[in-house]
Amino acid sequence: MASSLLHFSAPFRTLQPPPPLPKPPRIPLHVSRFPRPLIHKSLAFSTGFRAAPGSGRFCLRAKASMAGKGNGKVEVFDSEEDLSVSLAKYTADLADKFSKEKGSFTVVLSGGSLIKSLRKLVEPPYVDAVDWSTWHVFWVDERVVPKDHVDSNYKLAFDGFLSKVPVLPGKVYAINDALPAEGAADDYETCLKHLVKSNVLSVSAATGFPKFDLMLLGMGPDGHVASLFPGHPLVKENEKWVTFIKDSPKPPPERITFTFPVINSSANIALVVCGAGKAGPVHAALGSGQNSDPLPVQMVSPEGELVWFLDKDAASKL
Hints:
It is an enzyme of class 3 (hydrolase). This protein is an alpha/beta fold.
């Protein structure tokens, strides 16, 4: 399929390595802030460095790390700002790892507030230090609208992220917005299969589905991920790589989406959730109770590592 044409003017510059940072001091634990931790009886705190605005210095920010159900790890941050700092480092570290190992980094974006939470990647040090030439960018779902439409996930990502970093235009894989929903889904799946044959994408030895290096997912207030909604038959699709929906409960109604076998074949998944309005499904997914009718977010279970990035409001019911 034809790739979207992106134009970048920002030159690539080499960042001089910063001086070594001192070992951070041990931070006292105040477990009472988190009554009834997720699964275990205790919380482990780790420290992250963040540049103090205008000071050139670094200050410490505390985050709570918890063990989630299954193979998930849960990080809870005091604010969305602290979350975005950690998410940028997490993403940049994985990009560096895979780029050195195989010369490429395949990353899948979603819509909603996820792009806002990636904003630190377009700032120093990452905008200059990341090897953007190795990035291949995909979407876990897309609305079947023109690329310049306000509802387009491509437009959201372009305006807030892609237009500010030198990712190569030929490595950005947007949907063909001239096609109807079913045709756009088939076309995107054909594109993925072509990239598998050309060794841009690897395939899971366990499932035979494409294996992306990193999938960055958000979650809706109803617990949906991608365009896979609670109670919809598409959550059970297990053969197609990409499918379509014409009756989305959230507008616009026509979309294409990766299926769960593709999502769960990923090497790494970050689930990024902010806001008190999403605390309910976060509790359903990570709390100790059992749910006979699991939400889509509860069906996210990658072959590799799953990390939850939560602000304290999203984690308020845990």
